[in-house]
Specification:
9 helices; two-stranded parallel ribbon; 297 residues
Length: 297
């Protein structure tokens, strides 16, 4: 039995699809809001507010009835700017509530936690961070994630660190990918950073690789799940335009610090790159592309 806590978000929606595609297991999707219609017979929805202990206790009671429970924990207070503005609320959701859930779910066969490359901080001279490297986040969101990872590792659970993720949204609300496409279809320019690099990956590939790690039952406590290429957001924009058959000339390169559509408030690392050697060794992969399915050796 797979369980996705925070199933209705961008990544959660793709993990639902990956579980259904790659396994024959039943799936429990946990979120604060349950969809009115559910046509997939293998999916059951349970409402839960992860920051409300009574709600969590009710969820745990339901999960205890299942066998071989494998949990993907995605619930979080994500937006770095909002985390900066509301640090106490962010800590309660991202660390305190997570810790309570992990303690209560000690019966689970697996618990995987979705973390981020934000824990590493700034890549200097295009250095690719390994899982064992010291952590040096540049904002409070990254510090939240470091603390949450420590909770997971202390309990013998698993952490996957994701880079910048991008795909068409399956979550019923537009994602960055969709904003790019809409702008280009309307013949409007779209600004994207040309000097900020990440080991970017599609939501689809990120979800499938995570589920494959769970199937493999890999013992490594932390794994970087990312692509091989160092891509600026401008590079990613060009790839999106190419995939959608749209005008690449409308993707406008801008530099960090210049006025741009993204309008970040909290500090971001200019570039954060990750090494995915361990991931490729575990899953016997030759190459991990941002959009194409990973190639096996």
């Amino acid at each position: 039995m797979y369980v996705i806590v925070g199933a209705n978000g961008y990544l959660g929606s793709y993990i639902k699809k990956a579980v259904l595609d790659l396994t024959d297991d039943e799936l429990i999707c946990v979120s604060r809001h349950i969809p009115e219609n559910n046509e997939e017979k293998r999916i059951r929805y349970i409402s839960c507010d992860i920051s409300d202990r009574e709600s969590v206790d009710q969820l745990i009671e339901e999960l205890r009835k299942e066998e071989d429970v494998r949990i993907v924990f995605l619930a979080a207070y994500h937006n770095p700017d909002l985390v900066e503005k509301n640090p106490k609320l962010a800590w309660d959701v991202n660390v305190t509530s997570l810790s309570y859930f992990i303690n209560q779910a000690d019966f689970a066969k697996q618990i995987y936690y979705a973390s981020t490359d934000s824990v590493y901080g700034e890549s200097v001279d295009f250095y690719h961070f390994k899982e064992s490297d010291p952590l040096d986040p540049v904002n409070f969101y990254g510090h939240n994630k470091c603390a949450a990872e420590a909770v997971m590792v202390h309990h013998g659970r698993n952490v996957v660190r994701f880079p910048f993720l991008i795909s068409p949204s399956l979550a019923g609300k537009p994602h960055f990918y969709d904003r790019i496409v809409e702008s280009l279809k309307n013949d409007q320019p779209f600004e994207m950073y040309e000097d900020s690099y990440r080991s970017s990956l599609s939501f689809d590939n990120a979800a499938r690789l995570l589920v494959q790690l769970m199937i493999k039952q890999d013992p490594h406590p932390i794994v970087n799940v990312c692509g091989d290429k160092d891509l600026s957001k401008y590079d990613v924009g060009l790839l999106v335009a190419e995939r959608e058959g749209l005008n690449k000339e409308l993707i406008v390169p801008v530099r960090m610090g210049e006025i741009s559509v993204e309008g970040f408030i909290s500090k971001r690392a200019t570039s954060t790159l990750m090494d995915n050697t361990l991931l490729k060794e575990i899953l016997d992969l030759e190459y991990v592309d941002i959009f194409e399915r990973p190639k096996r050796r």
